[in-house]
Specification:
Helix content: 55-70%
Number of helices: 4
Distance between the termini: 81 Å
InterPro entries: FecR_N
Shape: rod-shaped
Keywords: Membrane, Transmembrane, Transmembrane helix
Pfam family, one: DUF4880
Number of domains: 2
Protein name: FecR/PupR family sigma factor regulator
Radius of gyration: 26 Å
Structural class: mainly alpha
Order of helices and strands: EEHHHH
Oligomer: single chain
Length: 119
């Protein structure tokens, strides 16, 4: 069951309550996905620690999004990157095809120009 939108004790002993808002939940989801990506580095991890230290709501949201990430069957980084690589290859093939069309058009134009000059 999702805890998003429920009040939390702020963990500071102040009696105030922190809320995991949809915005905080979305930020947590972005952190989870980013940490499973190819660009993970020390700076990213430091940024995550700073974000987590902003409030207990951030920590709660991150834990919940991590649980969701791990619970979804088929949500594996390797599969996601394989799909991205395949899409990239398709775009590259499409670009080559378009480039070949332009080369062919250029050859035709040169041939027509040569015929016109020869006349």
């Amino acid at each position: 069951m999702s805890n998003i939108g429920f009040d939390r004790d702020d963990g500071q002993g102040s009696g105030r309550r922190q809320q995991v808002t949809p915005q905080i939940a979305a930020e947590a989801a972005v952190w989870v996905v980013s940490l499973h990506g190819p660009d993970r580095d020390g700076a990213m991890e430091e940024g995550l620690r700073a974000w987590l230290n902003l409030s207990p709501a951030h920590r709660e949201a991150f834990e919940e999004m991590t649980d969701i990430w791990q619970a979804i069957p088929g949500t594996r980084t390797a599969q996601a990157y394989a799909a991205a690589i395949e899409a990239s290859k398709r775009r590259a093939r499409r670009r080559r095809y378009v480039a070949l069309q332009w080369v062919a058009l250029g050859v035709v134009a040169v041939c027509i120009g040569a015929v016109l000059v020869a006349l």
